[in-house]
Amino acid sequence: MIRLGVNIDHVATLRNARGGSAPDPVAAARLALTSGADGITAHLREDRRHIRDADMPRLKALDAPLNFEMAATDEMIRIACALGPHACCLVPERREEVTTEGGLDVAGQKGTLAAKISLLKAAGIRVSLFIDPDRKQIETAASLGAPVIELHTGAYAHGGAGELERLQKAALVAADCGLELHAGHGLNYENVGPIAKLQGLAELNIGHFLIGQAIFDGLGPVVSKMKSLISQK
C-alpha cells in the first residue's frame, strides 16, 4: 500500500500570521496520523517562514516517521544530524519563491551534494532527493548513494502536456536504478489517481491541498479521503 506523508507546513503558516502558538502544527500532525497518515513532512526553510526550529523536535517526538525537507546547506545538515529524523528530503530553495518551483539539480551539484549526503547517511538518516522526472537527474541520484528519490509532480499538476508520460518513464528509470520512488507537489483529489499508479511508487507527500481543504471538511476527513484515493490503484 502506498504511504501518505502529510506536510503540515501551512498549519504553521497560519500560526505565524498572528505570531502566536495557534494553530499548532504538531497537533495537526497528531490528527493527521490518527486519520490515516503514515508519516509527517515538514520543511524547515532558511527564512523560517512557516516551520520553526522549536517545532522540529516536537514533531520528531511523535510516534511516526518524520520527513525533514530542507535545503542542502551546512546549517540544515547540522540541524538534521543533531535531530535525527527518519528521513531528510533535499530540495532546492530560493528566498523569493512562494513554494518549491522545481526539482533539485542533482547532476549540476553532484560535487557539493556528495559530502552532504554522506553526512546524513552517517547520522542514520534516510536521504531522499526531490528531483524532476529526468533520466540524468535520476541516474545521478543513484550514483550519489541516495536510496530514495521524490519526483516533482508540479508540472503535471498544472496540466503540462506529456507530463504524466514523463513521470511514468521516470518511474521505470528509478526502478532500473534500484531507487525507492516517492512523488509530490500540487496533488489533489482530482489528479492524484494517475500518480498513485506509477510503477513502484512507495509514498506520496501532500500538504497544501490537504490543509486548504481541511478548512471546509476538517483535517481528519480530508486525510482519510486522500488515503482512500491513493489506495485505489
From TrEMBL:
List of catalytic residues: H43 (proton acceptor), E69 (proton acceptor), H185 (proton donor)
CDD domains in the cross-refs: PNPsynthase
Family recorded in the similarity comment: Belongs to the PNP synthase family.
Name the record gives this protein: Pyridoxine 5'-phosphate synthase
NCBIfam families per the UniProt record, alphabetical: pdxJ (TIGR00559), PRK05265.1-2 (NF003624), PRK05265.1-3 (NF003625), PRK05265.1-5 (NF003627)
EC annotation from Swiss-Prot or TrEMBL: 2.6.99.2
Record's keyword terms, sorted: Cytoplasm, Pyridoxine biosynthesis, Transferase
Job of this protein: Catalyzes the complicated ring closure reaction between the two acyclic compounds 1-deoxy-D-xylulose-5-phosphate (DXP) and 3-amino-2-oxopropyl phosphate (1-amino-acetone-3-phosphate or AAP) to form pyridoxine 5'-phosphate (PNP) and inorganic phosphate.
Reactions catalysed, as given in the entry: 3-amino-2-oxopropyl phosphate + 1-deoxy-D-xylulose 5-phosphate = pyridoxine 5'-phosphate + phosphate + 2 H2O + H(+)
Recorded superkingdom: Bacteria
Amino acids binding 3-amino-2-oxopropyl phosphate: N7, R18, G186, G207, H208
Subunit structure: Homooctamer; tetramer of dimers.
Primary localisation category: cytoplasm
GO terms (BP aspect): pyridoxine biosynthetic process
Places the protein is found: Cytoplasm
Enzyme class: transferase
InterPro entries per UniProt: Aldolase_TIM (IPR013785), PyrdxlP_synth_PdxJ (IPR004569), Pyridoxine-5'_phos_synth (IPR036130)
Pathway: Cofactor biosynthesis; pyridoxine 5'-phosphate biosynthesis; pyridoxine 5'-phosphate from D-erythrose 4-phosphate: step 5/5
One Pfam entry name: PdxJ
One GO MF term: pyridoxine 5'-phosphate synthase activity
Record site: Transition state stabilizer: E150
Gene Ontology CC: cytosol
Residues holding 1-deoxy-D-xylulose 5-phosphate: D9, H10, R45, H50, T99
Naturally occurring in which organism (per UniProt): Gluconobacter wancherniae NBRC 103581
